[in-house]
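Q: Could you fold this chain for me?
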Amino acid sequence: MCETFDVQENPTITAAEIARLAGVGRAAVSNWRKRHADFPAPVGGTTASPEFDLIQVEQWLRTQGKLPELATADRLWRHLAAASDSPAAGLAAVGALLLARQRGSRRGHPDAQLAPLLPDVDALADELSPQGAFDELWQRFSAPGPGRPFATPDDLADLMIGLAGVGGGSVLDPAAGSGAILRAAVRAGSTSVYGQELDEDLARLAGLWLALHDVPGEVCPGDSLRADAFAGRAVDAVVCHPPFGATNWGDEELGHDPRWIVGTTPRTEPELAWAQHALAHLRVGGHAVLLMPPTVASRRAGKRIRGELLRRGHLRAVIALPPGVAAPHGVPLHLWVLRRAAADAPPPARALLIDAAGGDLADTAPRVLAAWRAFAAAPDADVEEAGFARAVPVIELLDEEVDLTPARRQPAVGGEASGEHLVRTRERLAAIVGELPALLPQVTPAPDGPDGLFLTVGELAKTGALQLIGPVRAGTSTPASGGPPVLTVPDVLAGVEASGRVDDRFGQEIFLAVGDVVVPMIARQLIPRVVTADGALLGRNLYLLRPNPAALDPWFLAGQLRTSANEKQASSLSGTMRFDIRRAQVRRLSLDEQRAHGDAFRRLDAFESAIRQAASLGAELAQLTADGLARGSIRPDSPR
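A: Sure. Below is the predicted structure, expressed as structure tokens.
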């Protein structure tokens, strides 16, 4: 276990750190440098930000009587933090020495640069035991500081473990960081814990903590999504604070991964990939708890996955937390509680939404746990605490947005709470508006001007580049109870999932597949949509264009069809709003160029969806403000 780490020959310290070391202001350090000729000279840094030899500075401060007496743990940690570019690597090296001592094994020959610290390591281990010494250093490592990542706070980790109902079972954290959640699992009585962490130094640290505390389990370094270290292992609970907003998480190479048990995860929804990864590692009946950014509950790209998680009974609760409970501290995060449902079990009728964003975590955590446990004991009960918790019928959640934001599903609670609702609506609007620049595709003028090489949809169909089906006409059929949903013209115009049902006027059954493009035959605008989920039926008065993937990219095709020029080209007569899609024109581009354009069209579609959400929230915010001002539940800020 003894591994080396890079320690500088002469650890350095800045003027600001000298001030903290001596308990004075920076001006005092500047005065010492001017007034005392024997003050150590800089050994590095710049003129504006010099660095000094730590040992020389300590000796000078001690001689001058300006160095407070430090405990062994403080002195050892200060040297570790100053001597290593990576405090995690430094602490891991010391932890390996402490583990060797605890196990009574020879610790070998540590790195020569570590040797000066050995007397303090031994003294601290003699004083507190190897385990206690590591815990003391761990506390200092966990405090915010340069080179130290934000760890999940203990109170939040305890809440997450409590929601998972760990008991004496096994726990996995696939994004373990320095092990905060694993330590919470041990506190709750877990008998074996497992973790994986991309940062090798943090993975070593978390594994050392387990070893020093004699906890069965292991923490492996590596990327959990791309290289799952625990493939095939099912545990009692998965609890995780995954990375947020990752843009390169492996969606292309993992497109058909068996972990995607409710469907392929969209590229722009990495957090939902973590949710499916967690489900894949649960035994049937086990729970997963994930910390999520609030936009995951409402982003359009993720509504298909959210819907499937609800339909199959996997998503059981979404809990809005107060702002500041974890990094990023300015964002009011959510907790998602999932349960691995049996494949043949009927899905529960309700899901629990808790809005605890308005309080302090220390006060609301017991209430959140009580609400969740009451709901878990009776999942079909009609639970409702005005302004806080509601067991919402799943059918109500499966609307056109599948928006799981708890505040939007709570019943009104009067004037006082409407002010809180207003604040949360404003925060959600600000979050969506803040995402707009990143959604809008980056484009540049074409150097050679417009390209005039086009083929009509009819010509593409003749060449085999696509298959043109429909529109389906009214017919006669015998409705099947509980049959597949039907994609209707209103669904396409609104950009929502299939909501229709087979009726006695339904004609030919044509099942839709991912990558199909559908276009209404009659509408005010020519609006194509790309199908993103299998299984629905093509509704009446819809064209179905099924591209040959070797010749045509679906998002490129949809983007080409939506132009104002095609709206004129494909309309039967001006103003009739009836389209003959065969006449629409599509540019001739190579498949690689199509994919690049298709990605831009896909981002544009997400941008337009966000604009619609912002408009809806803006209108809601204006109404809430007007109502609150008129009722007297809110008032204008006093003019300055």
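A (continued): The first helix runs from residue 15 to 22.
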